[in-house]
Write a structure and sequence with these properties.
Elements lengths: L6 E7 L4 H12 L2 H5 L1 E8 L5 H8 L4 E3 L8 H13 L3 E6 L8 H6 L4 E5 L11 H7 L4 E8 L9 E8 L6 H26 L2
Parallel strand pairs: 1-2, 1-4, 2-3, 4-5
Antiparallel strand pairs: 5-6, 6-7
This protein binds 5-O-phosphono-beta-D-ribofuranosylamine (GRF).
Length: 199
Amino acid sequence: MPSKTKKNIVILISGSGSNMAAIVRTAQQQDWQRQFGAGVAAVISNRADTGGLQLAQSLGIATQVLSHKAFDSREAFDAALMALIDGYQPALVVLAGFMRILTPGFVNHYAGRLINIHPSLLPAFTGLNTHQRAIDAACTEAGCTVHQVTAELDHGPILAQAAVPVLPGDTAETLSARVLVQEHLLYPQAVHDWLQSQP
Ligand code: GRF
């Protein structure tokens, strides 16, 4: 059943869900329900076998699985995903490691209420393998970006960024771990700020 909170947040994941958990924990700790009339209504994964689903359940959040493999086309999957999300009447849809490219129809449907976190200092390094590419390019800084989602991948307006140093001897794994610590601070803060900016 859809939650009765006024400003429902729906979070989409594909993986371990650590950013999702950071947002849920912050919402609970800061009592976003009381502050903003907001709460995380559901976590939806396109994969049934991801640890993020158990993590969400352990935090008391309803979960749903919608496998993209059950659909013939990207458009058909996105239409079913929209129907599932819209059942929660979301004020905000949060992509947190959701590893699907979304159709323009989906993105336009949630225009202004769809955000993503990307593990680079955009506009640098859109796409995949961001940490290795930052190391290969001899960057001295890396980081993460929260941005609004538009039809062009990783190109929407930037809402917040956090930077970390790239250290001598860094591998993609060590750099990724350093960035992820910042992601877990930046994303909940960006959602908080978005809620605060709403009438
Ligand atoms: C994060 O690095 C995020 O920036 C990227 O995918 C990863 C998701 O990790 N979009 P998690 O599932 O939140 O742990």
